[in-house]
Structures are given as structure tokens and as C-alpha cells.
């Protein structure tokens, strides 16, 4: 599903140039659950942003479902992204002005789903995530675990093939964290490919494979399953 | 999608109540000003639109390119219009337009009705539709009179006016019997030509004796061109006609040293299109015109105020944008396109603009109603507000503002990089060029407005207090309703008030000084040859004791004495500049034959030039003529400080006896002189409003900006305070960035205001001198106002307990 070869990314600020990704290569097959680990600043988020088509690489190749997407312009990336990829962030990134229902509904609006269909699909996901009773609450009225469940619901409502999660349990206590990990595992079992960045060896055990990074390069890969 | 946008818009507007409030207030003020300005301008452009032939109708005027400069005359002698019609092939129809009278008598009842005297063509040229009576050709008979519906109502009440006989004195004639043949529909006030009644010009008192006299000029002339004729053709043919009929005029102009203008004419009759008439008051001489330049100034001022309001909006939204960056990032991440985001953000601005706009429209509606009540009718503004063309205009204002105000911040926000926003890396920069530039522009505008207000007011004061060359203090002016009885009535007042210690002297004048309660003014000119020289002078008909009453000291000679009434001579007082034209060493006592048909001029005194007309004009040569049978329209009474009010009361009682049943319109000349400068007074008033609004709006924006910056720097302030900074240092730290901007604005505004104001003052022959201290004063005012606005908040921030601000992080 994803084949990355010699991927490069630099950040240039006034004087210093940071190499965030240094000729990185790996492959991920459909249906896999992969954890990415490594010390802070090694380029995990940068990688995830590129894989998630939020950002553009400076060199190398990135094949997504057999299409070369490195060098796609913003519009093309956005198009591909909104139909295929769901995101879960460490800081949830829910919109404060919208209710739980409206937050989850948002991706459907952007992909042009009709209002009636939206309602049934959002309710279906909220049910599955067990936050249906909070549908008219605003994010600040929820606990961290609940907020992350809403974020997961928002990520999956469009039935994406790929879910990217950047430290999804980083802001949660362990019981809430486990709950979220269980949700991701369930989704993976239903066929969704998942790439997750994490610092926790415990969470990484939920995955099939761990990619370890250092200074913008992959160092080892552990196959768990 | 749209529903989603609006929902979010509402919520985020409610969430930022303070900023929404400031934005709404600013936009409301901006829109209200904008709508009122548009309405005022729209009203001006609605003038004379109803005439079907308006593209073919022109007002004639004369240009004399004298040695001293070009002079425009809008009045003609009786033979002109008929001559143009007969001899100029391009001209199809022509009408004269002369003030007739202000009085209609019907069965003992006297009514204030203003009648204009015209030719038969008048109603064929202009579209004043007939409501009742002879619609085909009213004014065919000399005794025909046509009334407006309102006038008919005032004279006849509910009686049928058609066929009724009324009486009027026309331009010095005795009461004439006239028959009402038609009633015209009432026309709105946006008409350059205004009248209550029309009658044929042949009824004018002087018509029979003057009908072939080109030199006595007293009425406007309108012509209508043939279907395919052009203005250019007509003007060429008019020159041919002039050369043929007025060789004497050309000769005397040449003798005088006249220079041809850029079209090669030393004298020409030219045409002013009806479509331009309202915008050429100097040429048309019709009192209700305005210069296009004035309209543009009003538009510009309105636009500038709207810009200030827009800039506030832009600045606050820009600053706010950063607090919303996360939301925008998330939306983009979920698939929102840049265009969609722009649409969403812009629709938020639009929503706010729309709310402000609707409130402003409603408020404008109320304002218009109040204005109409205050001015008693005037322009049909309330109806105009609902015309589709105006609504379209107002709506474009809404679009314009929402694009300017909402467009840039929305565009900027929709361009945010997703990755950056999700990291929370997009923050409000402390110094942003755009933001600083907008604040500078706002204060530049505000400073210019303050300067303009200040200098226009100075000029108004200058005009108002300038020495006219006569003593306008303790001088009373009373218009007569029947000028033909003027001399008799002055004589009666003189004898009856002789024993009143408050009345120092009594005289009369055909032309008022200043603008009295009757609002009328007039200018008569005469030009004639004298021993090979050409004499051109304004004329006024006056009564005895003129110099004493007006407080003018003669250079030589004496005042007109009451006893001169027995003579057949015309006794004349000349001003210095008119006397000079005669080229005589000794004028006093000379008998000068000006017009073979009239008695000779006996020059009794030469006086210094004085201002018979406003200081907007240069002093012109003037001859004051005294004969016992010319009409005088005003009585002048000199009184003194102690008796000012008592004499006015006495005069009111006396006038009630002389003109029973007529409203007393006596007024003090010093107040009337002020009225000359109503326009300048109005302008300085309008500018002061504009200045106040601009400075308030600018400060409102500044206030919001300062608060936002303080919010961002709370922690810094706290740390500095812990480290020992005191309150003045801290508030200066925050204030200085803003004060710098205001200072820059003042530096930019000063030369602009200087230039603009010198340009404006150029049109005044008598003007204040621009002094550097005026601009320093304005600059200081602006800086102090800004400083107070800023430091009010910075001091508050600086005095806050640092522990509190550090904990909030
Ligand atoms: N916008 C940016 N500008 C400059 N440097 C950046 C930017 N984003 C990330 N970096 C640098 O790139 C490297 C990788 O960052 P990141 O991918 O966020 O690391 P991780 O997520 O593994 O902690 C780090 O050295 C970081 O400082
Ligand atoms: Mg990271």
C-alpha cells in the first residue's frame, strides 16, 4: 500500500538546516498495523505528515496504492487524503466551536456526503465508540479519553483505508489509553491499515511490526506477529 | 455547507464578544456614514432627471474675456432669447426665465406664491406635466397663468382653480388680472427650476420700455436644440448672431483691451447642458446648485471613514486569525479546500457586515425621517432610499466593505500551512507591516480630517469677521412684500420713527446685504460707453441716508439727502473702482448721461469699495442710484446696542400697519452676513463630525490592537515586573510601538492637509493664512488622544500583580 524509498525532508530556518528525514525507506502492506518509535526529534511526526499527504517531501519516492504521489500539488494531495486517510492526534484537535456530532460529521461534509446519509453514518460511528449520549456536547465538556474517542470516530467516519495516529495515547492515562488502543486494534481487524507513532513499548505491542527511527533514518524493524 | 458556515460563524462571533462588539460598532458607524453619503450624492444626481428633453435643453450664458480676466454672465436682456430662436438655426425653442413676484391676490386674500415669468415655449421644453386644464398649450395668452397643485390648493382651497381670475404684480408692474388656465402636477425638490406659478414674461413691468434693450440684463435664458443639432454648432451660430446684433459690445470690449480666450472669442454666448446645470452653480446662478468638486469631497470623506472602519475590522480579524489557526489546520487536514475555507471565513465577515448593514439601513431610515421633519420636506430622500438603483448602490457598498474588510484576513487564513497550524506554530507577530500600515493610514485620515475641520472653521471665522467696508452691527434689514410701495413705506417709517431714540437713520436698498429671512439676492449690472471709455458696474437702487445708515464714510461728496426726492435727476453714489472708469478728475456734481431714455446721473459721492456681496467674491465696481420711482425691496434701519431688540419690536408693529396680514421678516444684518457663509459653516460642521468619527474609529481599532498585544505579552510584563521594572517603564515599553505609528501618521498627514487646504483656500479671494502652529496644534491633538487611548490600557496592564499574570500561563 505504501512504498517509500530514499525519502528526504529538510527544514531551513534562518541559519540552520535540519535534516528531518534522511534517505528513509520502508514498505507497508494493506491491512498492517505498524508502530513507529524513536527518540524525540528523530523525524517521526515529519514522516507521518508526509505519509498523510499533509506535507511534501524534498526528495525520494512515495508510492501510495501504486501511484507516485511525491510532487503532488496541494489540491491533489487534499483530494487523495480526504477519501483515503484518517488522522488521530495526540492533542485530539477537535474544533471547540462544534459539538461532538458536528466534529465527526465534518469529514463527510468535505467529501460531499448528503445530509441524510451523514446523520446515519455519524450516529453509527458514535454508537460504536460509545459516545452517542454525548453527541450534543462540546469538546471542552468531555474527558480526555472521551475526546480521543471522538477524534477516532472522526478519523474513521469516512471509512478510510489508512489511519495515521501520532502519539494517540500521549495525553491519556493508562486505562483510557488502553481503550483507545483496543479501538485501533478493532479497526485494524476490520481491515484498516494503521500507522501509529508512539513512545510507549506497551502500546507498540498492539502492532504487528515496529519501525525504529534515529536521526531521520530507520534503524531496525521488529516483526511482532 | 452554507448552513454549516453560518452556524460556525454565529458561534465564533458570539465567542469573541468583545471583538465582535468593536467590529460591529465600527462597521455600523461606517455603513451609516456610507449610506447617508450615498443618499446625499444620489439625491444630487437625481436633479432634473424628469425632463424628457433634458439632453437637448441648455442654459445660455455669456463669457466676457476682459483684460482683468474672464467674466461669466448668466443674465440677458429681453431681446436675447427671441433673437436666438429666430436667428440661430440649431435652436428650436427658447424661453426667458425671470422672477415675477411673490404675491397672488384672490378676492382680497393675499398669498405668498412665487411666480416666474417665461415664454410660451417653456412648457414645451420642460416636462412639467399638466394635471388639470389646458394641457395642449397653456401660456398662449398674455393673461394666462399656470399654477402648481400645491399653489392652487393654497389659493383656492377646494375650489376648482381653472378659469378663476387672480391678481399679481409682476416685476414692478401694478396688479394685473390673470386667468388660471392650467394646474401642473407638483414636482419634487430635486429640480433646478422651482416656482409656484408661471406667467408670460411680457407681463413684466419694464417689458414695454425695455424689450429692445440688450444692456439691461436681468433674466436667465434656456434654449432647446433641434433634433440633430449639436451644442458646438449652436455655439458657433450664436457667435455669428452676436456679431451681427451686438457690434457695439465687441467694439467696447476691444477698446477696453479684452483678450480672446482659448476658443478665440473675446465675447461669446455659450451653452450649459441641463444635465450639468445642477453641478454648475457659478454659471447657472440658480441658487440650489452644487459643484461636482463638493460632491467628490463628500464622497471622498465618506469613503475614508468607511476605510477606517474596514481597517479596524481587518486588523482585529488578522490578530484574531492566529487564535483560530488550529481550527483551520484541522479542517484542512480533514479535506477542506483552500477556496472552501476562504468562503467559510469570508462568510463570517459577511455575516457581521450584513448585520451592521441592516442596522445602518434602519438607522439611516430614521435619520432621513428626522432630517425631513427638521427641514420640512426638502428632497424626497425617504422615497429615494427605496428606489432599486439606490438599493443596488447601497448593496454594492456592503459587498465592497465585506470584500475589503473580510477578504484579506480570510485569504491570509485560508493560506495557513496545515502542519504548522497543527503544531501551534502560527502566532501573532508583535510587529506586522500590514497591521502597522493600516494603523498609520487610519491616523493619517483622522489627522487630515482634524486639520480640515480646524482650517475650514478658521476660514469661516475669517469671512464672518472680515471688514465689509460697512458697519453691519446694529443694522436691521426688512424685506417688503410689495417692492413697488417700498419708497412710500420707507418714507412713512422714517417719519413715524423719527421720535424713537433707538432709530438713528432709515434707508432702503434694492439688494440685501447678507442672506435674510426671505433668502433672496440679486445682481444687476450695467455697462455703457462714456467719452470713449467703457464703464461696467454693478447697480443697486437705494434710498436717502444710505451712507449714514450703512455707516460708510464718503471719500468725497455727501450722502443722498431726503430732499432729492423732488428732483428728476438720478442721484448716484459711486464706489472708487466704478468712479475710476469714468476717467474724470472731478466727478462730484457732474451730470452724466448713461442712457438716452433715462434722466442723467448726478454723482453725489464717491466712497471706498465695499462688500455688497459675500467675501467669496472680489469687490466689484458698484453704483448706488436714487430715483423716486424705482422699486426698493428692503428697508434698512440703523439702531444701537441698547435699543436693538426694542427697535425690532417697534418695526414689527409698524410693518403690521404698512403690510397688514403679511409675515414680518425683519432680521439683523450681522446675522444675515453670517448666513452668507452658511456653506462654510455647514462644511466645517460636517468635517468636524467626520473628524470625530474618524478619530473615534481609529482609536477603537488602536484600543483593540493594544489589548491583543497586551494579552500576548502578559507573561513578559510579569517577568519584567518581577525583575524590577516600574509602571512608567513598562507602559512606555508597550506604548512606544503604537505611538511611533501615530507619529509617522502625523508626519504624513501634515503636508497632505497643507496642500489640500491651500488648494481649497485658493478659491477664496479673501482667505486665512496657513500657519505652522495650526498643524502643530492638530498633530498634538491627535497624539494626545492616541496616547490617552493607549496608556489607559498599558498602565492597567503594567499595574497588574505579576504573580497573577505568571500563573495564568
Ligand atoms: N517547521 C519546522 N521548522 C524547522 N525544523 C523543524 C520543523 N518541524 C520539525 N523540525 C525539526 O525536524 C526534526 C524532526 O521533527 P519531528 O518530526 O517533529 O520529530 P518527532 O516527531 O520525531 O519528535 C526535529 O529536529 C525538528 O526540530
Ligand atoms: Mg512528534
Automatic annotation (TrEMBL), chain A:
GO CC aspect terms: membrane protein complex; plasma membrane
PROSITE patterns recorded: ABC_TRANSPORTER_1, ABC_TRANSPORTER_2
Record keywords, A-Z: ATP-binding, Nucleotide-binding, Transport
Keyword Nucleotide-binding: yes
Organism of this sequence: Lacibacter luteus
Residue span(s) of domain ABC transporter: 2-225
Annotated Gene3D superfamilies: P-loop containing nucleotide triphosphate hydrolases
A Pfam family assignment: ABC_tran
Name of the protein: ABC transporter ATP-binding protein
Family, per entry: Belongs to the ABC transporter superfamily. Macrolide exporter (TC 3.A.1.122) family.
GO molecular function: ATP binding; ATP hydrolysis activity; transmembrane transporter activity
Annotated signal peptide: none
From TrEMBL, chain B:
UniProt entry tagged with the keyword Cell membrane: yes
GO cellular component terms listed in the entry, alphabetical order: plasma membrane
Annotated MacB-like periplasmic core domain residues: 20-238
Location relative to the cell: Cell membrane
GO molecular function: transmembrane transporter activity
Signal peptide boundaries: none
Occurrences of domain ABC3 transporter permease C-terminal (ranges): 300-417, 689-802
Membrane topology type: Multi-pass membrane protein
Xref: InterPro entries: ABC3_permease_C (IPR003838), MacB_PCD (IPR025857), Macrolide_Exporter_MacB (IPR050250)
Residue spans crossing the bilayer: 21-45, 295-316, 350-371, 391-412, 433-457, 685-710, 738-757, 772-795
PANTHER family noted in UniProt: ABC-TYPE MACROLIDE FAMILY EXPORT SYSTEM PERMEASE COMPONENT 2, MEMBRANE COMPONENT OF TRANSPORTER-RELATED
Listed name of the protein: ABC transporter permease
Source organism: Lacibacter luteus
Amino acid at each position: 500500500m505504501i512504498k517509500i524509498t530514499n525519502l528526504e525532508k529538510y527544514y531551513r530556518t534562518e541559519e540552520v538546516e535540519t535534516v528531518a528525514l534522511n534517505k528513509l525507506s520502508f514498505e507497508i502492506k494493506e491491512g498492517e498495523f505498524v508502530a513507529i518509535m524513536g527518540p524525540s526529534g528523530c523525524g517521526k511526526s515529519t514522516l507521518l505528515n508526509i505519509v498523510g499527504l499533509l506535507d511534501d517531501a524534498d526528495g525520494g519516492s512515495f508510492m501510495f496504492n501504486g501511484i507516485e504521489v511525491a510532487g503532488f500539488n496541494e489540491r491533489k494531495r487534499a483530494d487523495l487524503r480526504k477519501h483515503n486517510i484518517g488522522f488521530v492526534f495526540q492533542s485530539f484537535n477537535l474544533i471547540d466551536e462544534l459539538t461532538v456530532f458536528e466534529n465527526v460529521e465534518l469529514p463527510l461534509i468535505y467529501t460531499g456526503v448528503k445530509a441524510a446519509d451523514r446523520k446515519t453514518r455519524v450516529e453509527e460511528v458514535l454508537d460504536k465508540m460509545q459516545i452517542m449520549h454525548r453527541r450534543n456536547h462540546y469538546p471542552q465538556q468531555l474527558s480526555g479519553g472521551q475526546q480521543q474517542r471522538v477524534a477516532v470516530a472522526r478519523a474513521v467516519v469516512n471509512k478510510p483505508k489508512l489511519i495515521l495516529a501520532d502519539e494517540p495515547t500521549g495525553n491519556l492515562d493508562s486505562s483510557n489509553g488502553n481503550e483507545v488502543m483496543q479501538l485501533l486494534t478493532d479497526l485494524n481487524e476490520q481491515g484498516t491499515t494503521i500507522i501509529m507513532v508512539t513512545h510507549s513499548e506497551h502500546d507498540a505491542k498492539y502492532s504487528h511490526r515496529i519501525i525504529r527511527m534515529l536521526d531521520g533514518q530507520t534503524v531496525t524493524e521488529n516483526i511482532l506477529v | 455547507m452554507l448552513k454549516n458556515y453560518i452556524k460556525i460563524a454565529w458561534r465564533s462571533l458570539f465567542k469573541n464578544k468583545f471583538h465582535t462588539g468593536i467590529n460591529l460598532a465600527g462597521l455600523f458607524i461606517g455603513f451609516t456614514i456610507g449610506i447617508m453619503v450615498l443618499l446625499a450624492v444620489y439625491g444630487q444626481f437625481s436633479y432634473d432627471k424628469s425632463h424628457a428633453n433634458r439632453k437637448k435643453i441648455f442654459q445660455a450664458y455669456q463669457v466676457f474675456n476682459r483684460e482683468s480676466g474672464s467674466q461669466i454672465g448668466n443674465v440677458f436682456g429681453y431681446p436675447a432669447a427671441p433673437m436666438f430662436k429666430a436667428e440661430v438655426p440649431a435652436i428650436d425653442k427658447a424661453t426667458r426665465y425671470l422672477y415675477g413676484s411673490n404675491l397672488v391676490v384672490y378676492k382680497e386674500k393675499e398669498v405668498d406664491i412665487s411666480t416666474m415669468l417665461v415664454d410660451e415655449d417653456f412648457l414645451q421644453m420642460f416636462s412639467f406635466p399638466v394635471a388639470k386644464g389646458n394641457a395642449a398649450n397653456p401660456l398662449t395668452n398674455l393673461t394666462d397663468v399656470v399654477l402648481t397643485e400645491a399653489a392652487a390648493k393654497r389659493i383656492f382651497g377646494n375650489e376648482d382653480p381653472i378659469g378663476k381670475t387672480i391678481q399679481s404684480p409682476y416685476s414692478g408692474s401694478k396688479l394685473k388680472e390673470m386667468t388660471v388656465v392650467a394646474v401642473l402636477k407638483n414636482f419634487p425638490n430635486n429640480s433646478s427650476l422651482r416656482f409656484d406659478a408661471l406667467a408670460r414674461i411680457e407681463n413684466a413691468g419694464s417689458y414695454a420700455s425695455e424689450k429692445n434693450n440688450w444692456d439691461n440684463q436681468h433674466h436667465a435664458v434656456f434654449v432647446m436644440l433641434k433634433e440633430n443639432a449639436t451644442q458646438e454648432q449652436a455655439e458657433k451660430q450664436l457667435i455669428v448672431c452676436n456679431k451681427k446684433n451686438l457690434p457695439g459690445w465687441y467694439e467696447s470690449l476691444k477698446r477696453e483691451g479684452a483678450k480672446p480666450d482659448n476658443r478665440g472669442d473675446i465675447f461669446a454666448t455659450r451653452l450649459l447642458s441641463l444635465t450639468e446645470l445642477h453641478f454648475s452653480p457659478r454659471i447657472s446662478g440658480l441658487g440650489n446648485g452644487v459643484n461636482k468638486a463638493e460632491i467628490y469631497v463628500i464622497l471622498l470623506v465618506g469613503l475614508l471613514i468607511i476605510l477606517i472602519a474596514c481597517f479596524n475590522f481587518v486588523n482585529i480579524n488578522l490578530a484574531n486569525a492566529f487564535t483560530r489557526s488550529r481550527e483551520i489546520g484541522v479542517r484542512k487536514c480533514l479535506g477542506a479546500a483552500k477556496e472552501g475555507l476562504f468562503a467559510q471565513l469570508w462568510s463570517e465577515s459577511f455575516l457581521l457586515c450584513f448585520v451592521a448593514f441592516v442596522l445602518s439601513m434602519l438607522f439611516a431610515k430614521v435619520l432621513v425621517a428626522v432630517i425631513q421633519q427638521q427641514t420640512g420636506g426638502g428632497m424626497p430622500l425617504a422615497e429615494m432610499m427605496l428606489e432599486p438603483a439606490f438599493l443596488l448602490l447601497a448593496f454594492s457598498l456592503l459587498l465592497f466593505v465585506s470584500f475589503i474588510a473580510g477578504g484579506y484576513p480570510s485569504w491570509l487564513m485560508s493560506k495557513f500551512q496545515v502542519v504548522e497550524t497543527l503544531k501551534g506554530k502560527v502566532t501573532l507577530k508583535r510587529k506586522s507591516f500590514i497591521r502597522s500600515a493600516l494603523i498609520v493610514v487610519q491616523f493619517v485620515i483622522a489627522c487630515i480630517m482634524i486639520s480640515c475641520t480646524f482650517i475650514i472653521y478658521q476660514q469661516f471665522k475669517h469671512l464672518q469677521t472680515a471688514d465689509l467696508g460697512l458697519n453691519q452691527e446694529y443694522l436691521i434689514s426688512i424685506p417688503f412684500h410689495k417692492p413697488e410701495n417700498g419708497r412710500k413705506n420707507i418714507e412713512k417709517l422714517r417719519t413715524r420713527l423719527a421720535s424713537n431714540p433707538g432709530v438713528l437713520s432709515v434707508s432702503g436698498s434694492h439688494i440685501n446685504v447678507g442672506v435674510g429671512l426671505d433668502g433672496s439676492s440679486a445682481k444687476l449690472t450695467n455697462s455703457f460707453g462714456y467719452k470713449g471709455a467703457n464703464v461696467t458696474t454693478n447697480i443697486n437702487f437705494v434710498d436717502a441716508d444710505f451712507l449714514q445708515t450703512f455707516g460708510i464714510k464718503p471719500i468725497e461728496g455727501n450722502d443722498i439727502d431726503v430732499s432729492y426726492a423732488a428732483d428728476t435727476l438720478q442721484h448716484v453714489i459711486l464706489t472708487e473702482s466704478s468712479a475710476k472708469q469714468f476717467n474724470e478728475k472731478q466727478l462730484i456734481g457732474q451730470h452724466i448721461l448713461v442712457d438716452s431714455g433715462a434722466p442723467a446721473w448726478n454723482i453725489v459721492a464717491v466712497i471706498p469699495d465695499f462688500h455688497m456681496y459675500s467675501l467669496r467674491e472680489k469687490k466689484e465696481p458698484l453704483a448706488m442710484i436714487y430715483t423716486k420711482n424705482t422699486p426698493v425691496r428692503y428697508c434698512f434701519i440703523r439702531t444701537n446696542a441698547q435699543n436693538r431688540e426694542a427697535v425690532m419690536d417697534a418695526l414689527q408693529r409698524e410693518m403690521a400697519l404698512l403690510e397688514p396680514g403679511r409675515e414680518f421678516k425683519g432680521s439683523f444684518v450681522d446675522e444675515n452676513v453670517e448666513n452668507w457663509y452658511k456653506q462654510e459653516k455647514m462644511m466645517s460642521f460636517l468635517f468636524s463630525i467626520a473628524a470625530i468619527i474618524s478619530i473615534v474609529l481609529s482609536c477603537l481599532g488602536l484600543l483593540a490592537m493594544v489589548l491583543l498585544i497586551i494579552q500576548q505579552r502578559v507573561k513578559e510584563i510579569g517577568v519584567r515586573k518581577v525583575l524590577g521594572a516600574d509602571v512608567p517603564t513598562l507602559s512606555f515599553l508597550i506604548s512606544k510601538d503604537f505611538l511611533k505609528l501615530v507619529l509617522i501618521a502625523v508626519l504624513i498627514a501634515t503636508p497632505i492637509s497643507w496642500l489640500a487646504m491651500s488648494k481649497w483656500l485658493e478659491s477664496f479671494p479673501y482667505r486665512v493664512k496657513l500657519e505652522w502652529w495650526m498643524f502643530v496644534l492638530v498633530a498634538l491633538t491627535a497624539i494626545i488622544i492616541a496616547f490617552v487611548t493607549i496608556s489607559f490600557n498599558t498602565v492597567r496592564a503594567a499595574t497588574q500583580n505579576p504573580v497573577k499574570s505568571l500563573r495564568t500561563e
